[in-house]
Amino acid sequence: MLEKILTHKRAELSLRKKRCPQSQLEASLHLAPPPRPFAQALRFPGKVRIIAEIKRASPRGPIRPDADPVKIARLYQRGGAAAVSVLVDERFFGGKPAFLRLVRWEIDLPLLYKEFVLDPYQVYEARLLGADAVLLIARLLRTEELRMLKELAASLGMDSLVEVHSRDDLQKALAVGAEFIGINNRDLATFRVSLQTTRLLRPLIPPEVVVVSASGISSPLALTCLREWKVDAALIGEALMAAPDPEAKLRELVTAAEGGEGGCSE
Ligand SMILES: O=C(O)c1ccccc1NCC(=O)[C@H](O)[C@H](O)COP(=O)(O)O
Protein backbone atom coordinates (compact mmCIF):
# COMPACT_ATOMS: atom_id res chain seq x y z
CA MET A 1 0.00 0.00 0.00
CA LEU A 2 2.78 2.45 0.87
CA GLU A 3 4.32 1.97 -2.61
CA LYS A 4 0.88 2.57 -4.17
CA ILE A 5 0.48 5.80 -2.16
CA LEU A 6 3.93 7.04 -3.20
CA THR A 7 3.46 6.16 -6.87
CA HIS A 8 0.18 8.06 -6.85
CA LYS A 9 1.76 11.01 -5.03
CA ARG A 10 4.61 11.31 -7.58
CA ALA A 11 2.15 11.25 -10.52
CA GLU A 12 -0.11 13.79 -8.80
CA LEU A 13 2.84 16.08 -8.13
CA SER A 14 4.01 16.03 -11.70
CA LEU A 15 0.49 16.97 -12.89
CA ARG A 16 0.16 19.77 -10.34
CA LYS A 17 3.57 21.19 -11.27
CA LYS A 18 2.39 21.44 -14.87
CA ARG A 19 -0.82 23.20 -13.85
CA CYS A 20 0.87 25.57 -11.43
CA PRO A 21 4.68 25.71 -11.64
CA GLN A 22 6.76 26.04 -8.49
CA SER A 23 7.96 29.49 -9.62
CA GLN A 24 4.34 30.67 -9.35
CA LEU A 25 4.07 29.37 -5.78
CA GLU A 26 7.35 31.07 -4.86
CA ALA A 27 6.22 34.36 -6.38
CA SER A 28 2.98 34.28 -4.35
CA LEU A 29 4.54 33.62 -0.95
CA HIS A 30 4.14 37.25 0.14
CA LEU A 31 0.36 36.60 0.18
CA ALA A 32 0.68 33.88 2.84
CA PRO A 33 -0.25 34.66 6.46
CA PRO A 34 2.89 34.85 8.64
CA PRO A 35 4.19 31.59 10.15
CA ARG A 36 3.81 31.00 13.91
CA PRO A 37 5.94 28.82 16.22
CA PHE A 38 4.61 25.25 16.20
CA ALA A 39 7.02 23.02 18.14
CA GLN A 40 7.48 25.49 21.01
CA ALA A 41 3.70 25.74 21.45
CA LEU A 42 3.82 22.10 22.59
CA ARG A 43 6.37 22.45 25.40
CA PHE A 44 4.70 22.28 28.83
CA PRO A 45 6.81 20.12 31.16
CA GLY A 46 4.69 17.54 33.00
CA LYS A 47 1.85 17.79 30.47
CA VAL A 48 1.18 16.24 27.09
CA ARG A 49 -0.30 18.67 24.58
CA ILE A 50 -2.65 17.40 21.90
CA ILE A 51 -2.31 17.95 18.16
CA ALA A 52 -5.77 17.15 16.84
CA GLU A 53 -5.93 15.91 13.27
CA ILE A 54 -8.54 16.58 10.59
CA LYS A 55 -8.70 13.25 8.77
CA ARG A 56 -11.79 12.19 6.81
CA ALA A 57 -10.41 8.79 5.76
CA SER A 58 -7.33 6.60 5.85
CA PRO A 59 -6.01 4.02 3.37
CA ARG A 60 -7.90 1.54 5.58
CA GLY A 61 -11.26 3.13 4.78
CA PRO A 62 -13.56 6.09 5.45
CA ILE A 63 -13.69 7.63 8.95
CA ARG A 64 -15.98 10.68 8.67
CA PRO A 65 -16.12 11.21 4.91
CA ASP A 66 -18.41 14.25 4.86
CA ALA A 67 -16.79 16.12 7.75
CA ASP A 68 -16.56 19.87 7.28
CA PRO A 69 -12.91 20.72 8.09
CA VAL A 70 -13.80 24.19 9.34
CA LYS A 71 -16.45 22.90 11.76
CA ILE A 72 -14.08 20.21 13.04
CA ALA A 73 -11.32 22.81 13.50
CA ARG A 74 -13.67 24.95 15.63
CA LEU A 75 -14.54 21.91 17.79
CA TYR A 76 -10.84 21.15 18.22
CA GLN A 77 -10.04 24.71 19.27
CA ARG A 78 -12.92 24.71 21.79
CA GLY A 79 -11.96 21.23 23.05
CA GLY A 80 -8.46 22.29 24.08
CA ALA A 81 -6.15 21.24 21.22
CA ALA A 82 -2.73 22.91 21.25
CA ALA A 83 -2.34 22.60 17.47
CA VAL A 84 -4.14 21.11 14.48
CA SER A 85 -2.86 18.73 11.80
CA VAL A 86 -4.62 18.94 8.43
CA LEU A 87 -4.36 15.96 6.09
CA VAL A 88 -4.20 17.43 2.60
CA ASP A 89 -3.93 14.19 0.59
CA GLU A 90 -7.15 13.62 -1.35
CA ARG A 91 -6.91 10.10 -2.77
CA PHE A 92 -6.18 8.16 0.41
CA PHE A 93 -7.19 10.51 3.26
CA GLY A 94 -10.11 12.49 1.79
CA GLY A 95 -8.32 15.79 2.34
CA LYS A 96 -7.55 18.78 0.12
CA PRO A 97 -4.81 21.44 0.25
CA ALA A 98 -7.59 24.07 0.36
CA PHE A 99 -8.73 22.69 3.74
CA LEU A 100 -5.59 24.08 5.33
CA ARG A 101 -6.24 27.59 4.00
CA LEU A 102 -9.86 27.50 5.19
CA VAL A 103 -8.84 26.32 8.66
CA ARG A 104 -6.07 28.97 8.84
CA TRP A 105 -8.65 31.73 8.52
CA GLU A 106 -11.02 30.14 11.03
CA ILE A 107 -8.92 29.31 14.10
CA ASP A 108 -5.82 30.66 15.84
CA LEU A 109 -3.99 27.38 16.57
CA PRO A 110 -0.72 26.51 14.77
CA LEU A 111 -1.24 24.21 11.77
CA LEU A 112 0.67 21.19 10.46
CA TYR A 113 0.66 20.38 6.72
CA LYS A 114 0.15 16.61 6.85
CA GLU A 115 1.23 15.06 3.59
CA PHE A 116 3.71 12.64 2.06
CA VAL A 117 6.26 15.36 1.37
CA LEU A 118 8.71 14.27 -1.32
CA ASP A 119 9.51 17.49 -3.12
CA PRO A 120 10.26 21.19 -2.40
CA TYR A 121 7.06 22.03 -4.31
CA GLN A 122 4.99 20.74 -1.37
CA VAL A 123 6.95 22.83 1.15
CA TYR A 124 6.22 26.00 -0.83
CA GLU A 125 2.59 24.95 -1.11
CA ALA A 126 2.38 24.36 2.65
CA ARG A 127 3.63 27.88 3.39
CA LEU A 128 1.39 29.48 0.80
CA LEU A 129 -1.65 27.77 2.36
CA GLY A 130 -0.69 29.15 5.79
CA ALA A 131 0.98 26.13 7.42
CA ASP A 132 3.31 26.65 10.40
CA ALA A 133 4.94 23.22 10.15
CA VAL A 134 5.39 20.40 7.63
CA LEU A 135 5.66 16.66 8.15
CA LEU A 136 8.82 15.00 6.82
CA ILE A 137 8.78 11.19 7.01
CA ALA A 138 12.35 9.91 7.50
CA ARG A 139 11.55 6.52 5.97
CA LEU A 140 10.58 8.12 2.65
CA LEU A 141 13.57 10.42 2.24
CA ARG A 142 17.32 10.00 1.89
CA THR A 143 19.32 11.86 4.54
CA GLU A 144 20.31 14.63 2.12
CA GLU A 145 16.71 15.05 0.90
CA LEU A 146 15.52 15.26 4.50
CA ARG A 147 18.15 17.89 5.28
CA MET A 148 17.31 19.94 2.17
CA LEU A 149 13.53 19.90 2.82
CA LYS A 150 14.03 20.74 6.50
CA GLU A 151 16.29 23.66 5.61
CA LEU A 152 13.83 24.89 3.00
CA ALA A 153 10.97 24.76 5.51
CA ALA A 154 13.09 26.66 8.06
CA SER A 155 14.01 29.30 5.45
CA LEU A 156 10.25 29.88 5.00
CA GLY A 157 9.73 30.15 8.78
CA MET A 158 8.20 26.71 9.32
CA ASP A 159 9.10 23.90 11.72
CA SER A 160 9.63 20.37 10.38
CA LEU A 161 8.11 17.48 12.28
CA VAL A 162 10.49 14.65 11.35
CA GLU A 163 8.62 11.36 11.65
CA VAL A 164 10.44 8.19 12.76
CA HIS A 165 9.32 4.62 13.36
CA SER A 166 12.64 2.78 13.79
CA ARG A 167 16.15 3.30 15.13
CA ASP A 168 17.38 3.80 11.53
CA ASP A 169 14.83 6.56 10.96
CA LEU A 170 15.83 8.16 14.25
CA GLN A 171 19.51 8.09 13.32
CA LYS A 172 18.62 9.93 10.10
CA ALA A 173 16.52 12.50 11.98
CA LEU A 174 19.31 13.20 14.47
CA ALA A 175 21.91 13.36 11.66
CA VAL A 176 20.05 16.30 10.12
CA GLY A 177 19.68 18.02 13.49
CA ALA A 178 15.92 17.55 13.89
CA GLU A 179 14.65 19.63 16.84
CA PHE A 180 11.10 18.32 16.48
CA ILE A 181 10.55 14.56 16.16
CA GLY A 182 7.35 12.55 15.77
CA ILE A 183 7.44 8.89 16.77
CA ASN A 184 4.89 7.09 14.61
CA ASN A 185 3.38 4.14 16.43
CA ARG A 186 2.04 2.88 13.09
CA ASP A 187 4.26 0.84 10.82
CA LEU A 188 3.50 2.35 7.41
CA ALA A 189 4.22 -0.96 5.67
CA THR A 190 1.88 -3.16 7.74
CA PHE A 191 -0.38 -0.50 9.39
CA ARG A 192 0.20 -2.30 12.71
CA VAL A 193 0.05 0.09 15.65
CA SER A 194 1.84 -0.22 19.01
CA LEU A 195 2.46 2.44 21.63
CA GLN A 196 5.55 0.43 22.56
CA THR A 197 7.29 2.12 19.60
CA THR A 198 7.14 5.37 21.57
CA ARG A 199 8.20 3.69 24.82
CA LEU A 200 11.29 2.22 23.10
CA LEU A 201 12.39 5.19 20.97
CA ARG A 202 11.65 8.06 23.38
CA PRO A 203 14.69 7.47 25.64
CA LEU A 204 17.00 7.62 22.58
CA ILE A 205 16.00 11.21 21.80
CA PRO A 206 17.89 14.09 23.46
CA PRO A 207 15.87 16.10 26.03
CA GLU A 208 16.05 19.38 24.09
CA VAL A 209 14.11 17.87 21.17
CA VAL A 210 10.32 18.38 21.20
CA VAL A 211 8.80 14.88 20.91
CA VAL A 212 5.40 13.90 19.56
CA SER A 213 3.85 10.43 19.72
CA ALA A 214 1.53 9.78 16.75
CA SER A 215 -1.07 7.22 15.69
CA GLY A 216 -3.32 4.77 17.47
CA ILE A 217 -3.82 6.99 20.54
CA SER A 218 -7.42 6.76 21.70
CA SER A 219 -7.70 6.37 25.48
CA PRO A 220 -6.99 8.39 28.62
CA LEU A 221 -4.68 5.53 29.71
CA ALA A 222 -2.53 5.98 26.59
CA LEU A 223 -2.15 9.68 27.43
CA THR A 224 -1.16 8.78 31.00
CA CYS A 225 1.59 6.53 29.60
CA LEU A 226 2.82 9.23 27.22
CA ARG A 227 3.04 11.62 30.17
CA GLU A 228 5.11 9.08 32.13
CA TRP A 229 7.39 8.58 29.13
CA LYS A 230 7.98 12.34 28.94
CA VAL A 231 6.51 12.92 25.53
CA ASP A 232 5.60 16.56 24.78
CA ALA A 233 2.61 15.98 22.53
CA ALA A 234 0.24 13.37 21.11
CA LEU A 235 -1.02 13.54 17.54
CA ILE A 236 -4.55 12.10 17.42
CA GLY A 237 -6.72 11.66 14.33
CA GLU A 238 -9.06 8.72 14.04
CA ALA A 239 -10.16 8.53 17.70
CA LEU A 240 -11.42 12.13 17.47
CA MET A 241 -12.83 12.00 13.95
CA ALA A 242 -14.72 8.75 14.61
CA ALA A 243 -16.18 9.95 17.91
CA PRO A 244 -19.88 10.93 17.87
CA ASP A 245 -18.84 14.16 19.65
CA PRO A 246 -15.21 15.01 18.72
CA GLU A 247 -15.11 17.99 21.12
CA ALA A 248 -16.21 15.88 24.11
CA LYS A 249 -13.72 13.13 23.19
CA LEU A 250 -10.95 15.71 22.91
CA ARG A 251 -11.82 17.18 26.33
CA GLU A 252 -11.65 13.71 27.87
CA LEU A 253 -8.20 13.10 26.36
CA VAL A 254 -6.93 16.59 27.27
CA THR A 255 -7.87 15.97 30.92
CA ALA A 256 -5.74 12.80 30.97
CA ALA A 257 -2.95 14.49 29.01
CA GLU A 258 -2.72 17.33 31.49
CA GLY A 259 -2.51 15.18 34.59
CA GLY A 260 -5.48 12.88 35.15
CA GLU A 261 -5.56 10.18 37.80
CA GLY A 262 -3.84 6.79 37.62
CA GLY A 263 -0.60 5.34 36.34
CA CYS A 264 0.50 3.69 33.14
CA SER A 265 0.18 -0.09 33.06
CA GLU A 266 1.34 -0.61 29.43
O1 LIG B 1 -3.81 6.39 9.13
C1 LIG B 1 -3.35 5.45 8.48
O2 LIG B 1 -3.86 4.31 8.47
C2 LIG B 1 -2.12 5.63 7.63
C3 LIG B 1 -1.77 4.64 6.73
C4 LIG B 1 -0.63 4.79 5.92
C5 LIG B 1 0.13 5.93 6.02
C6 LIG B 1 -0.21 6.93 6.93
C7 LIG B 1 -1.32 6.79 7.72
N1 LIG B 1 -1.69 7.78 8.61
C8 LIG B 1 -1.12 9.07 8.64
C9 LIG B 1 -0.91 9.60 9.98
O3 LIG B 1 0.13 10.13 10.22
C10 LIG B 1 -2.02 9.52 10.99
O4 LIG B 1 -3.12 10.11 10.42
C11 LIG B 1 -1.72 10.22 12.31
O5 LIG B 1 -0.57 9.75 12.91
C12 LIG B 1 -2.91 10.03 13.27
O6 LIG B 1 -3.11 8.66 13.50
P1 LIG B 1 -4.48 8.13 14.12
O7 LIG B 1 -4.69 8.84 15.42
O8 LIG B 1 -4.27 6.67 14.32
O9 LIG B 1 -5.56 8.45 13.17
From TrEMBL:
Top enzyme category: lyase
Pfam families linked to this entry: IGPS
UniProt GO MF annotations: indole-3-glycerol-phosphate synthase activity; phosphoribosylanthranilate isomerase activity
Pathway, per record: Amino-acid biosynthesis; L-tryptophan biosynthesis; L-tryptophan from chorismate: step 4/5
Keywords of this entry: Amino-acid biosynthesis, Aromatic amino acid biosynthesis, Decarboxylase, Lyase, Tryptophan biosynthesis
Domain Indole-3-glycerol phosphate synthase: 2-253
InterPro entries: Aldolase_TIM (IPR013785), Indole-3-glycerol_P_synth (IPR045186), Indole-3-glycerol_P_synth_dom (IPR013798), RibuloseP-bd_barrel (IPR011060)
GO biological process: L-tryptophan biosynthetic process
Catalysis: reaction(s): 1-(2-carboxyphenylamino)-1-deoxy-D-ribulose 5-phosphate + H(+) = (1S,2R)-1-C-(indol-3-yl)glycerol 3-phosphate + CO2 + H2O
EC number: 4.1.1.48
SUPFAM superfamilies: Ribulose-phoshate binding barrel
Family: Belongs to the TrpC family.
Protein name listed in UniProt: Indole-3-glycerol phosphate synthase
Source organism: Ammonifex degensii (strain DSM 10501 / KC4)
